[in-house]
Specification:
47% helix; Arc Repressor Mutant, subunit A; Enolase-like, domain 1; 347 residues; 3-stranded antiparallel beta sheet
Length: 347
């Protein structure tokens, strides 16, 4: 752990530098730290300690300033060992509760509200990933005629979540055949997980109908089971939900054209961003990745803070993306609290 390299004085000075830089976006000097925090030592001692922190890789020294700024290593040490995590305020809690609900809304709507509300309160880019289906249990399904050669299969899943999939058919299907196949699929597949259905569809539907037309339609489900009941996909193609990017654009980090371009690239490529977020090592509970800890180079100027939420057996993540200079204590508290509110609402 990076913080193990620090003495108590170095921890204190590093925390003061980070707090000053987060609040002002300006490099911190020894006299500024002495005036703001006291620290019980002289500016000269603070300056020497900052030099030691720079040698250890926790501070950087911009050419245009006598002050110093935290490195990603400093933020990691701060998050892992120094940061005291506090609760959200009552006003923040009430605002989240008011804006995320009601519980009878579609899950995509709830996630969109949560990402937007969280982003505004944290002043970062809110982000939510819809849950993957995983070991979700099928409660029931329905087949709806869309056209002469197309059906819509509506899956009702555990946790009150619905998924729709189009099924291509060779021609007009009689109502009686459609009803018979729907009944068979419900009888043979309800109560199973999507993985079980995908892996054993053929065996489960064997000898289930006698009419040739029904057998022909069921064969389509058997042949395409791996696609129709694919549990590796998120609930919807639009499973990544983003809040308002404008709250980030106003921060000083994005006054430079290249960083603004990177921000726009992130928000304009939601699927690749979703893949990058899923590629992060997701720990149980809260996950924080900083700067170059991300495998995707587009995120190297950013910190991503996410927490898991649950909807029955389904699980997804809610959080924020922002510059590495962020008020970690406030952001972590808000992300953790929002994930718990989502779980309470959806579970």
């Amino acid at each position: 752990m990076a913080s193990e390299q620090l003495t108590n004085r170095e921890r204190t000075v590093l925390e003061a530098v980070i707090q000053t830089y987060v609040e002002t976006a300006e490099p911190a000097g020894s006299r500024t730290l002495s005036r703001r925090f006291g620290l019980g030592v002289s500016p000269a001692t603070i300056r020497n300690t900052m030099s030691d922190l720079e040698e250890k890789g926790f501070l950087a020294h911009p050419h245009t300033s006598a002050g110093r700024v935290p490195t990603n290593k400093a933020y990691r040490a701060f998050v892992d060992a120094i940061l005291a995590r506090g609760p959200v305020t009552l006003a923040e809690h009430q605002r989240l509760v008011e804006q995320i609900g009601p519980a009878n809304s579609p899950i995509e709507t709830i996630l969109r509200r949560a990402a937007q509300s969280l982003g505004v309160l944290a002043q970062e880019l809110g982000v939510a990933l819809g849950p993957r289906l995983g070991s979700t249990v099928l409660r029931s399904l329905d087949l709806v005629r869309v056209s002469s050669d197309r059906l819509l299969m509506v899956l009702q899943l555990e946790g009150g979540v619905a998924r729709t999939v189009f099924v291509e058919v060779p021609g007009e299907i009689a109502e009686g055949v459609l009803a018979e196949v729907t009944a068979v699929l419900n009888e043979r597949l309800s109560g199973l997980t999507l993985e079980q259905i995908s892996a054993s569809m053929g065996a489960r539907l064997r000898d289930s109908v006698t009419r040739a037309e029904a057998r022909e339609l069921l064969n389509i489900f058997v042949q395409d089971a791996g696609v129709l009941f694919d549990a590796s996909h998120p609930l919807t193609e639009g499973s990544l939900v983003l809040g308002q990017a404008s709250v980030l654009a106003e921060q000083p980090e994005f006054s430079a054209a290249d960083r603004m371009r990177r921000l726009l690239e992130l928000t304009q490529s939601p699927q690749s961003l979703a893949d990058a977020l899923r590629a992060r090592p997701q720990a149980a509970g809260l996950t924080i990745t900083i700067g170059q800890e991300h495998a995707d180079p587009r995120l190297e100027d950013f910190t991503v803070v996410t927490a898991e939420y649950h909807a029955g057996s389904l699980g997804g993540v809610i959080g924020v993306i922002g510059p590495t200079r962020m008020p970690y204590d406030k952001v972590i508290a808000l992300v953790s609290h929002t994930s718990q509110l989502l779980t309470d609402l959806l579970d």
